[in-house]
């Protein structure tokens, strides 16, 4: 019998209004509703497609790697999408189906599962508990990249973090924590998950020990703790993980990288946005031209539209579905960067070269070398951008690079007007949805 569990929707209703919940309940009115008291029920909650399918789109729209034509900009139905695209200070989220509501709906599913396992004393629950903790930790990590400023150890205690919902009690008020407490919670969830999860992966839509280690490595990278980013990245890579050989892919395929491929460690789709559609989001010519002709990513990731524009086709879904998954390639890049940051330039370059040999036409790749940390990091940052394009990671990278003094300024021209986002601008913490501020009384991001 199909079972649908709805406590996860109540917190969403409290934050964003009841219309979304009402629609959901109307859609599911003919389905039996029940309390999940068994291990199987709670696993089903975590496996729910909408639970793991939609990551945030705000960071990808904001990061500057893609652009839309003036015609497509004018055609979009949502003023909030236009405001997000041009880095406005507020009103950048639609009332329903926005990144905030999607994120906290999933967090509440995790909390519901964790509460159920405890309340009903469900036996043999380590695997399910570990998945819920890893998911919650990864979701808070992702959310921090959207709605918080870049982590800086010197200021994190004073900066605004996220409201940390750690149980499914909807009567608890929403209060923004500090950025330090937000990252502390991310690390706590992921460390606990590592101790509970098996190495063996049932599927790449379920968390595993490797995935939890990978997200830990990503978290420490964002925090600037390169020693631990290296430690946990290496641990993840010590288990059976693989890189795709792009020589084995067919660039003539509509979408050359297939779903459930061996490189994807944890699968997550990107939420929908009118500016990220397959034929709407254009890739900058300068970025496209940065790929050498014998770099197979140039033909695997991109296609022309017949009008002189470059479109992205490198989704790790084998379809139009955008993905912001955790992959083996990202771990190689984290480990390479962390080695260099920790002073071992040679090992960092070795790891980077091992990745890139799988991306170039056989016999044509020439290993990178670097005689300084500065040069090595320049190479890694360049290759990280080229490898992880359209994965929802560039926004966080720009924030941490600017924290360290890179001085990256984003710029877009729309309908004859130039919009800019200076380095370390407060708008790098995207505004919370206005209805969340009104309902909760939480402070909005500083401007």
From TrEMBL:
Record InterPro entries: SusD-like_N (IPR033985), SusD_RagB_dom (IPR012944), TPR-like_helical_dom_sf (IPR011990)
PROSITE patterns found in the cross-reference section: PROKAR_LIPOPROTEIN
Species of provenance: Elizabethkingia anophelis
Family under the similarity heading: Belongs to the SusD family.
Main subcellular location: membrane
Protein name: RagB/SusD family nutrient uptake outer membrane protein
One Pfam family cited in the UniProt record for this chain: SusD_RagB
Cellular component, GO annotation: cell outer membrane
Domain SusD-like N-terminal: 23-221
Signal sequence interval, chain numbering: none
Location(s) in or outside the cell: Cell outer membrane
Ranges for domain RagB/SusD: 330-403
Keyword entries, A-Z: Cell outer membrane, Membrane, Signal
């Amino acid at each position: 019998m199909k079972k649908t569990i709805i406590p996860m929707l109540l917190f969403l209703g409290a934050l964003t209004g009841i219309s979304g919940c009402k629609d959901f309940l109307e859609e599911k009115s003919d389905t039996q509703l029940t309390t999940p008291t068994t291990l199987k029920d709670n696993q089903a909650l975590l496996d729910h497609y909408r639970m793991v399918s939609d990551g945030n789109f705000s960071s990808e729209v904001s990061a500057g790697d893609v652009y839309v034509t003036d015609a497509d900009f004018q055609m979009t139905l949502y003023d909030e999408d236009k405001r997000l695209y041009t880095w406005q200070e507020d009103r950048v989220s639609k009332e329903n189906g926005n990144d905030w509501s999607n994120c906290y709906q999933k967090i509440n599913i995790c909390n519901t599962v964790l509460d159920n396992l405890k309340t009903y004393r469900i036996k043999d629950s380590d695997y399910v508990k570990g998945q819920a903790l890893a998911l919650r930790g990864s979701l808070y990590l992702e959310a921090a990249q959207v709605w918080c400023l870049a982590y800086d150890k010197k200021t994190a205690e004073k900066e605004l973090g996220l409201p940390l919902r750690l149980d499914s009690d909807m009567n608890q008020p929403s209060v923004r924590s500090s950025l330090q407490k937000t990252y502390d919670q991310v690390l706590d969830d992921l460390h606990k998950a590592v101790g509970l999860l098996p190495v063996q992966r049932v599927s790449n839509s379920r968390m595993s020990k490797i995935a939890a280690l990978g997200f830990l490595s990503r978290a420490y990278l964002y925090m600037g703790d390169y020693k631990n980013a290296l430690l946990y990245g290496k641990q993840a890579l010590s288990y059976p993980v693989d890189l795709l050989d792009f020589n084995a892919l067919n660039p003539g395929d509509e979408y050359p990288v297939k779903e459930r491929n061996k490189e994807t460690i944890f699968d997550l789709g990107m939420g929908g946005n009118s500016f990220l559609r397959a034929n709407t989001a254009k890739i900058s010519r300068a970025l496209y031209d940065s790929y050498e002709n014998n770099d197979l990513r140039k033909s695997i990731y991109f296609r022309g539209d017949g009008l002189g524009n470059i479109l992205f086709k490198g989704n790790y879904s084998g379809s139009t579905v955008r993905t912001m998954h955790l992959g083996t390639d990202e771990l190689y890049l984290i480990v390479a960067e962390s080695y260099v940051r920790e002073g071992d330039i040679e090992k960092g370059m070795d790891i980077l070269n091992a990745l890139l040999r799988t991306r170039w036409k056989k016999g044509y790749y020439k290993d990178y070398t670097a005689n300084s940390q500065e040069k090595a990091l320049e190479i890694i940052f360049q290759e990280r951008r080229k490898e992880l394009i359209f994965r929802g990671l560039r926004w966080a990278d720009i924030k941490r690079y600017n924290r360290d003094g890179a001085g990256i300024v984003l710029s877009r021209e729309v309908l004859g007007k130039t919009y800019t986002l200076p380095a370390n601008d407060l708008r790098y913490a995207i505004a919370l949805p206005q209805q969340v501020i009104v309902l909760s009384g939480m402070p909005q991001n500083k401007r």
